[in-house]
Structure formats: C-alpha cells, structure tokens
C-alpha cells in the first residue's frame, strides 16, 4: 500500500506528527484537530478524572488567550462553541476539535497558536480551576441516573475487571472536589508531550503555508518522550452468565460477548483485505438479521457485530431482545439463526447483493470527480494516528476492492466467519426489569440454553426470492407541462404541471453527476381526524415493509443493489413528502422508483399483522416512572391532551389499526399530485431531465386532497403556572422555564432570523453567568421557535439540570438576565455581533450544499414567504437585527408572557 500522494504526513524532531490534506469541497472552511494519545488510562489513583478536567481547562486560559478569550476570539471569527469548537476525552485519547473559516490567514495563524498553547501553554490558573470544579461536578451530576446503571453493567462486563474499570473518564465526586492543583499540573506536564500528539488539518487550506506555521509554532516545544501504557483486558476465563435487573430497564436483553484481539494497522494489501472482510461480514450479518426481523420470530430485535471497542481490544458481540414470557424459546431461535450464519455462511445471492452495493457506492465516490470531504479525511487521519490505518488514495483503494470482490465467494466468507469466531469463552449478560426477573427461568437453565448455540446443529438458511426484471410493467405515457417560468431570484426554473404539481428546477454547482429529488405537500397527520390519525402514522411504514407493485421489500432491495437510486416517502404532523437521490447514470431508475412508490403501494397481511403485534407488544404494562409521568403531564400542560399528544394504548392499536385503511390514506398523500411542490437539483441542463419529469411526475394522478378538516390545538395558558413534582430517581433537579404566544406571525422569514439570533444570544449570556461565573450548571439549553402550522405558535424554552438546592438561585439569575436584556441593563452587543458573524459564516458554508436549497425551497412554499430575501439578502437581514429589536422581542417573549415553571426534584427522603 502507498500513502495518498496528496497527503502531507511528517514528524517533527520532538515527536509531534502532523497531517495536512487540502480539499475545497466546502469553500472557506477547515477542520483542525489536536490528537492526544492520552486519556483517563494514564491517570494515577490520585488523578482520577483529571484527563477530562484538563480538557475543560484548555478553554479556560492559555498563554496567548486568557480565561474565556479563546472562545470569544473564535466565535467572533465565525466558529460556534460546542458546534465548531469542542473536545472530548475517553480512556485512551483526548481530541480537540475546531472548524474555522480559512479565508483570513490571521485566523489560521491564531488557531495554530491556540493548538500550540494546548500542547505547551495551558495556564491552569488556580481561580479558573476552582470555577471549573463546579462545571465538571455539574456535568457529573447531569450523567447520574438509575437508568444508566444497565449501560454501566454492560461496559464493566466488556472491560472485564481490568484497569479500565478503575479509570472512568469523568472520575468521581471525591477526586473532583479534592484533587490538588499540583496533581493537575503534574498530569499536564508529563502527558501533554509532543511525541504523543498530532496536529491534523484538512479543508480549504494552503498546505505550504500551513506546514510553515506548524514548524514555527510546534518545532521548538520540548519533549521528554514519555511511554504510555496500553491497557490490557484479559479474555474471559470461562463461559458465565450475569443477570442484572432494576426498576428502570424496559426490555429484556441478552448479550453474547467474546473478547478478541484488536484489529489495527491496516497498512498492507493483506491487512486491508482483512479489514474489508470484516466490513463485508458485518453487512452480510446485518442484512440477514434485518430479513429475519420481518418473520414472526420468538425474539424481538437482534444484532451481531465484529469490531474494535477500544484501541486495545476487539469483540464479537451479539445482542438479542427477548420476550420475558418466552425467553427460552427466543434464545433457542436466536441460537439457530446465529449458528446458521457461523456454520453455513451466506448464500451467493446475499454475497452478490452486498458486493455490488459496496463496490458501486465506492465507485460512485471515485467517479463523482469532486474533492473528498474534510470530515471524511479528518476521520482517516484519526484512524492513521491512533490505529495505524494508512491513508491511501481513492483510486488505489478501489483497485484493492475490485480485486477483493472479484475473488470473493461463499467459501471464502464462511472461512472468514470461522476465523472471526474464536474458541475462547463467552460472557453472557442478561439485563431486565425487576418485575420480569422472577418470571424468567433460573440462571442455570438460562446458561444451559444459551450455551447450546456452540454445539447446536441446524439446517442451512434458505431464501427463495423472486426478483422481477423491471420496476414498472409499463412506461407511463408522458403527461402535460403547462408552462415553464424563470425563477430569477434563486437562478432556478419553475415548472407547472397539468396535474397540479409544481417543480422547482435548480442547477447544481456541486455534486457532479448527481441528482436530488425532493417534495412536500401541506397536510400530514394534522389533516387527519381522530379516526384516521392512528392509521396515518402507520401508513408509510406498513407500505415500506411490504413493498411496491410486483416487488417485495427484499426483492426491491436486491433489484437496486449496485444502483445509486434511492427515495424515501414520509409523513409527519404538518406535511407529507419524499427525498431521493441518484447518480445521473441512474436517473431513469430514480424517477421509475418515484413513480412506483407513489402509485403502486401494497400491504402484506402477514407483515402488517407483525407490525401491529410488535407495536402493541412494545407498549409497556408497567407503571411509568416519576420522570416519565412528569414529562407526560408537562406535555399535556403545554400542548393540551388530545388524540395527537396522548400515547396510543394497546386497546386503541388493537381496535383502531386496520389494514384496510392503510392504502387509501397512503394514496391520499402520495398518489395525488395536486399542490405538491417538488425540487429537482442537478448539474445537468433542464432539457436532460425534462423527459423524465413528463413521463414519471406529470403522470401522477391529479387527485384531490381533502383539506376541510383542520386540527386545532388547545389554547395556550394565559396565566403563569408552577408545575413542581418530586420523585426523580437521580440526585439532580430537572428544571425548565417555558413561554408561549399564539399571536399572528408577520414577516415570518425575518422573524425566524430574529429568533435564531435571540436563541444564540441567550445561550451565550446564560452559560456565561450560570456555567462560567457561578459553576452551577454544565450547560443551558435554549430554544426559541415559531410555526404557522397548524396554527400560529411561538414557544421559548430554557432548560437545564442542577443540584436541587440551586433551583431558586438559578431561576432568579435567569429572570434577572432576561430582564436585563429586555431593559438594556445588560450590554449584549458583543455577543450579538458574535452571533451574527457565526450565522453568516454558517450560511455561506451551507449555501454550497444542495440540501440547503431543497430546504430553502420547501420553506418558501410551506411558510408562504413573500419573497426570496431570506436567501438572497440573508447577510443584510441578519445585520439589520438591532439591539433594539432583540430587546423588544425579549420583552414580548419573556416579560409580557405568562410563564410555566417546571421542576422535577428527586424523591423526598
């Protein structure tokens, strides 16, 4: 294997590795990472939690940016904290992540200064450390929940009483409250060493300039070349079963875990073929299990996967969700399916489908003649640095894939399966609810039944599948185009069809040889009365699992293997629609698929019964927890209690969900072209696509969509309400402030921009005060939104979790900040400018994506905007939002509006 020639990968004398890869798929944007081969595993007993704490401190003062100046600087340049500026710590790594605008060379230079300071310039000021203790303790508190216990048991089983079990990433409250500053500095000085780090940069950059700056800022940092210890997780010594139950587990789940050697160092043709084989195996297994899920199995859901879960360990992991009342039957059937895979492998038809799909998908990437994405490249850099997986060119990788798939057959796959299922012991973990544990067989009987999968003899899997040769029996006769009009504001064309549909055709500047097809119609579930509402929710899923025309779901999947065409039909509360795409060479298939799914739905009786039975079975009979009751009651308080907000009951599903209703409802939404707005985006001229529009879109029946019924939500509260409950299972308080208005919404596109700005400003101000200054929360969630459907509604929510004793002081602070912004007592101009810069930067990046245009066109017609200024004059609209406007809207939303205060406190002692 030969490294991609575009990639610059080198190492400085102090051991620091750097990666540079220019790609301008998104103009004016770059991804910058600092990789550190250090996590909680390197902590001593006195340093537990400090690797993660140090990650926090990286944003609280470095050599060239004191305290919060770092975040403020990057946000002023268009990067958003949390979205474009973030970090994470795990057992074996710490990664700092930046996404920055790259047109200004000074921003690049300053960003690399920041990264250099992270390596050798964190201030670790004692006052900042003490402030951050509260933030990290709040993060610890936010993660505390009895519901997490099952996940912790699973993780501890994987870690198998190794050093990893003793080095939880966040640490514990004792270490977080009492660690000495000297320990934090000792950890930093020892482990933040250039020899354990890499700078990775990709995007719209100049590699020569970047390399010069890296040498200037990193080459002189001293290095001690410390040696990290690799955590060892021993294999299980013998087969054993752990049974864990609590009051919060809603399902009974059995895990089969076999620990294996880690898979790494994909840097030769042989190792690449091994990596590819595991990918193929996982896809084959996933496809087989998905097919079996459509049968009436005695278990619920299942998965089998072979992969790494840490840099030091791999695993074969099988998971099956059981029905408690028939657990042994479910285990026996799963064992049979497991053994069918590992004893006999896969059929040539299954292998052909996966091979064609994988090879065709990679070939399309290769043939699209467009730059590799920065996000994809940064992930490859990560794999190279941490796992030794060499970065090679797409062309070289495709050649190896072709060679591999040319030779692949069922014998090779079966051999690979046997190689990836070792003879070493398994650990079995069964998690369930306390109510179910006593109804399960005893532990000895469970283990005996589970272990049968090792010796059970089964018959090979059979799949008699008929795949029609054509999507459509007959090609529709072309329909009529009434007229084509220029849509100059967005450089598009508007095509009016005789069947009542409108098409907006826009030529793409990116995504060469690709076509997008999207559409929507107003209505959705809210257009259904209470009788049809239930069946409408199941109409699209029931048809999707049954198939279309002469095709079953599986036959259609096989027919499309290797073809890029795909399209999905969906219904939500306020509209129905679809989204599809294809390579231009598959354009006919895309439009045929659209026509087939729109006009020839079907419902398989057995599959519908299975869908209904599973839906009924998934409704729990056990009482809701205090948190679930709190959330449900709060939802009724805010949105009202009616057929759209209440959960379906078993009785309602049993009596109300009818197969006969599915197709008529589906046809109401999709076999009726009138009032549908479609967007087509392609780099081809309209003349190329027009014949397909005439044949497959203009021929959809006009139909009539009954809009006489209109759902009317409950009127909002006109008085403030305190909704206070006790009984939460964790030690934290869940706290939110909610405001609503039902005024008529004028100039909606401008209002949405104002709402975005206000939301971001509030988030900055609240986090600044509650997190950075007071250290009483890990973070504050702010939502400011508005909708015109089904009736005008604006809603604002401020939500957080905190210590119960802090609720009152936090409420006082929040209200004080809201009042200060509304009155002008708080100077938020700096934050306002920061938010505007970020919004404009994000807009300019998103505008390069075709998905931006499908959404913008949909929003224009769905919300009935008067013009296209929200696209053409976005920057002016954002800059036009003044301090006065934000003060006014804050006063309207938060001062003049009744408040719903909701708090769920822990159980009373």
Structure at a glance:
With 909 residues, the protein is of the alpha+beta class. Helix content is 44%, strand content 20%.
Features of the shown structure:
20% strand, globular, metallopeptidase activity, Cytochrome Bc1 Complex, Chain A, domain 1, Peptidase_M16, metalloprotease, 909 residues, 7-stranded mixed beta sheet, hydrolase, alpha+beta, 6-stranded mixed beta sheet
Characterise this structure.
The chain is of the alpha+beta class and 909 residues long. The protein folds into 4 domains: 196 residues, Cytochrome Bc1 Complex, Chain A, domain 1 (2-Layer Sandwich), CATH 3.30.830.10; 199 residues, Cytochrome Bc1 Complex, Chain A, domain 1 (2-Layer Sandwich); 217 residues, Cytochrome Bc1 Complex, Chain A, domain 1; 186 residues, Cytochrome Bc1 Complex, Chain A, domain 1, CATH 3.30.830.10. It is 44% helix and 20% strand. Strands 12-13-14-20-15-19-18 form a 7-stranded mixed β-sheet, with helices on both faces. It has a 6-stranded mixed β-sheet with strand order 1-2-6-3-5-4, sandwiched between helices. A 5-stranded mixed β-sheet has the order 7-11-8-10-9, with helices on both faces. Helix 3 packs parallel to helix 8, helix 9 crosses helix 11 and helix 20 runs antiparallel to helix 22. It is globular. The termini are far apart.
Chart the SSEs and their pairings.
Layout: E1 8-11, E2 17-22, E3 29-36, H1 50-57, H2 69-76, E4 85-89, E5 94-101, H3 105-120, H4 126-142, H5 149-159, H6 173-178, H7 181-191, E6 197-203, H8 207-218, E7 240-246, E8 252-260, H9 269-293, E9 299-310, E10 313-322, H10 327-344, H11 348-367, H12 374-387, H13 394-407, H14 410-419, E11 427-433, H15 434-437, H16 443-451, E12 481-487, E13 492-497, E14 502-507, E15 514-522, H17 530-546, E16 547-548, E17 551-552, H18 553-559, E18 566-571, E19 575-583, H19 587-599, H20 605-617, H21 626-639, H22 650-656, H23 659-670, E20 677-682, H24 686-697, E21 721-728, E22 733-741, H25 748-773, E23 781-787, E24 793-802, H26 807-823, H27 829-846, H28 850-862, H29 869-872, H30 874-880, H31 883-895, E25 899-906
Parallel strand pairs: 2-6, 7-11, 14-20, 21-25
Antiparallel strand pairs: 1-2, 3-5, 3-6, 4-5, 8-10, 8-11, 9-10, 12-13, 13-14, 15-19, 15-20, 16-17, 18-19, 22-24, 22-25, 23-24
Helix pairs in contact: 1-7, 3-8, 9-11, 11-13, 17-23, 19-24, 20-22, 25-26, 25-27, 26-31, 27-30
InterPro entries: Metalloenz_LuxS/M16 (IPR011249), Pept_M16_N (IPR011765), Peptidase_M16 (IPR050626), Peptidase_M16_C (IPR007863)
Keywords: Hydrolase, Metalloprotease, Protease, Zinc
GO molecular function, one term: metallopeptidase activity
